[in-house]
Amino acid sequence: MSDIKYILGSFGDPDEMMHGIEKLQENNISIHDVYTPMPIHGIEAKLGVKRSRIDIAAFCFGITGTCAAFALIYFCAVIDWRVNIGGKPSFALPDFIPIMFELTVLFCAFGMVLTYYASTHLFPGRAPRVMDLRATDDRFVIAVDAKENAEHTVIDQLLKNAGALEVKYNERKYISYE
Amino acid sequence: MSGHNESILREPLITGDNITYAKITDDILGPVENKPNKAWWIGFTFASLGALLWVVAVSYTFWNGIGAWGLNKTVGWAWDITGFVWWVGIGHAGTLISAVLLLFRQNWRNSINRSAEAMTIFAVICAATYVVSHMGRPWLAYWVLPLPNQFGSLWVNFNSPLVWDMFAISTYFSVSLLFWYTGLLPDIATIRDRAVGTRRKIYSIFSFGWNGSVKTWQRFEAVSLILAGISTPLVLSVHTIVSMDFATSVIPGWHTTIFPPYFVAGAIFSGFAMVLTLLLVARKVLGLENYITMFHIESMNKIIILTGSIVGVAYLTEFFIAWYSGSEYEQYAFINRSTGPYWWAYWMMMTCNVISPQLLWFKKIRLSIRATWILSIVVNVGMWFERFVIIVTSLHRDYIPSSWAMFYPTWVDVSVFVGSIGLFFTLFLLFLRVLPSIAIAEVKLLLKSASEQAKMKQIKEGHENKEYVAEYIESLEKFDSVKQEDYAKI
Known about the structure:
The complex is a heterodimer of chains A (178) and B (490). By secondary structure, chain A is of the alpha+beta class. Chain A contains five helices and four strands. The radius of gyration of chain A is 26 Å and the shape is elongated. With 490 residues, chain B is mainly α. Chain B has one domain. In chain B, helix 1 packs antiparallel against helix 15. The longest helix of chain B has 34 residues. Chain B is globular, with a radius of gyration of 24 Å. At the A-B interface, helix 1, strand 2, helix 2, helix 3 and helix 4 of A face helix 1, helix 5, helix 6, helix 7 and helix 15 of B. Chain A: Pfam families: ActD. Chain A: Keywords: Membrane, Transmembrane, Transmembrane helix.
């Protein structure tokens, strides 16, 4: 038993999996992570995952875009090279708004998505850290760290009673993709 | 999600019995994991021939300059800008479905957003190539960027809507691509985990190492919602700015404040028509009738009636305001549109865009796949004529009658346009082969609440109001993918 790193409870139904999480928590068994083929609403609260602060990042990037656009246009059209267009003022704020808006959206979208990729460690070519290949298809997988939680038979029983279709004992953390 | 049933009155979004999470994956990945069928090859052959024509025509334009087109000194913009606005407009439905309907929590978007967004990206590619090829000297296309004066020109004119448009279109394209690709990550991971060998390696690179953990999904949902929030004003701004390319000029027939809302409604109108043109065929050929149901088709038809009516009101308003303005140039522009040498184009536009969508008020037409498909093409023909009418009829008779002229397209004009349709379909058909045409993860979300089998279970449990159940069963009659006999005994 000593080589086992992770115990995986593989469920066929999201509600049963949520039930499994409750059962494990009632028995003070810590959950490493849960892998699902679709977002499960309400799971963050159950696992005590803090709310994402990506919206704050998005706002900061967006406002940076607004300022960058204004600075660029102001520099080009007002400071660096004023063009006399029928004697109209060079500092024509209403005309600046469309580009300020577009760059706000552009900076916000790219900044936020790149922050998301960086914080979740997503990038092209990254070796997938996958514990169970069916977790992206039709299985809802609860992963329990086998070293931290010694009572493997109890975990096995709890998962099966909650409705797990299969309990796996993985000797490697992730399935190799090599 | 547990212990909460959706109202029985809502029509199902997934039909068929014995649908499981595994079956959803199998059904949607069928075209990606298997060899293409004959229909695909026939479509692809024609589309790629069209794309080839496009390459030839655009290369010819680059080599010889835009003198290859039928433009003259009076009509300096014709099929090029017509094609550009037409394609950008078509692109708008994808963003509308993926962003606006997400904000409004319209769950029926879940099974059509992926292909609609793909359509957006391919349509904007077609539009962007028009912009580049109409420049005359496309190798200097970077001059539209704000570059320092040493590059040979002054700073770009930030008061010009053409510069705004450059920012709008490039932001729109790149943000749409980002939104689409981020949404694709979980589905690419699904393909990866089912594939073997080289296929797995390729999809593994493109899946960015997605693993579906709690934190990944939580951030994914936050990111999707914010992207939807910023894409909604973005999509409105893009066509608003496109319309300002015309509206801020002083050409009679262009210089109107009604243009932004009128163009945006027209864009959504033509975009939904194109979504229907593509999906009505795709659902049949790919066997996706259980996911893209008659409810989806009817909903899109309703949006077409709404936006088509807005466009109709805009046409009439424009005409009225031309008269009411008291400006003789404005009045002439409109009289000339409807009774001048281009009267046929004007009435083509009126028939296709104002009259034909009104047929969708009839339930029988709205629910007929064949009629819907034909109407979707009629709408796009009409929307092409709308742009042609706005652009060419306003230009061809300018302020000096001695320079009045007609526009005659050359073979290059026609080939660039027909070719761009080929390019669009080539890209779309390739997309159907390599990526899932329906957002797998998002459809799985609906299985336990909004599927026909979940509702069947609700009915069988017997806690539902009898009247509501009867109404629900009646609403199922329109579905071509529901076995009506299952409900006969209830």
